[in-house]
Amino acid sequence: MTTPPSAFPDVEKLVVDVLKADPALAGVTVAVQAPAGFDGTQNAVLVNRRGGAWIGDLHVDKPLIEFEVYGPTKNAAHILANAARRALLATIGKQVGVNLVQDVEEMDGPRWMPDYLYRGANRYLCVIQLALTVF
What we know:
Elements: H1 11-20, E1 29-31, E2 44-55, E3 60-71, H2 74-89, E4 95-96, E5 99-112, E6 122-134
Parallel strand pairs: 1-2
Antiparallel strand pairs: 2-3, 3-6, 4-5, 5-6
């Protein structure tokens, strides 16, 4: 059995970069935290690693990625959630930076979830698991 790396890949940055490069998400805030002045009604996809597992024998990181997707309306947020999911699913088999995306599997979503921090928010949550070969 091999030991895990001293630091996992920055999968949040990898996912943010993938989403920012997708034309369907042009003009959308894609980040790991809400920008200053954010109130939940803007077009935004917030990306967070929510755990996962290291598979040492295969040298694979399997992070769980959560999208919090916001829009000015419930329908707009749903459209953005689907665009973000599609963009990430399209990376299967591709090299992104120094990582090979072996698989992308949806674990949950998109799921409507009221946001108690931002009262006027229209928010969908998605959880997607990646399988990344770490070089």
